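Honest question from a wet-lab person: if I give you the sequences of every part of a complex, can you actually get the arrangement of the whole thing, not just the pieces? Trying it with mine:
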Amino acid sequence: GQQVMQIPQYQHVQEGEDFTTYCNSSTTLSNIQWYKQRPGGHPVFLIQLVKSGEVKKQKRLTFQFGEAKKNSSLHITATQTTDVGTYFCAPSGSARQLTFGSGTQLTVLP
Amino acid sequence: NAGVTQTPKFQVLKTGQSMTLQCAQDMNHEYMSWYRQDPGMGLRLIHYSVGAGITDQGEVPNGYNVSRSTTEDFPLRLLSAAPSQTSVYFCASSGFTYEQYFGPGTRLTVT
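Yes, you can. This is the full assembly:
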């Protein structure tokens, strides 16, 4: 499977600060998906990136796919307490199987 | 639509016991998968299916069996439970949009 390294593993921010998590691969990825998992919950799909250099925005969330399709990032502007959770990147295989990164656990301090 | 449902929500087994985790989806999705999640390790793929009658192994298939006799159901069977199988198990399904829908999970403890 396609292995990805996700950093940082943990991030604590004050409410209102920005947050970024990075996903890196040693091989070229065909696509990458991002998921959010709230504490005690299940992963919820956020977005899929397919094109080299692609940038997509969802309100305060900005997703990027690197030019070489070997890395991706998720940036949250002005975090809120509702952003708390673990964010996973996951390349998708031909049969839709996902290879999850280890995740970045975000804590937002009020 | 109920989406993806999983039963049971919680289960405690003794070492050596067998059991089946149930997963069902009502979205007519062809693709279904089973993942396990251990603390600090993200989710790892156990088995997956691209349609009724077709299954394949994922990253960590040992100790688990699956079958897909209908589009809706994708049960995961633990053959002889071991403490190393203590985990949270998620079932997921996917249709044309590639987005994966996850069930609420089954929290399994093997003593």
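Two things worth pointing out. Chain B has a mean pLDDT of 95. Residues 4 and 103 of chain B are 5 Å apart (CA to CA).
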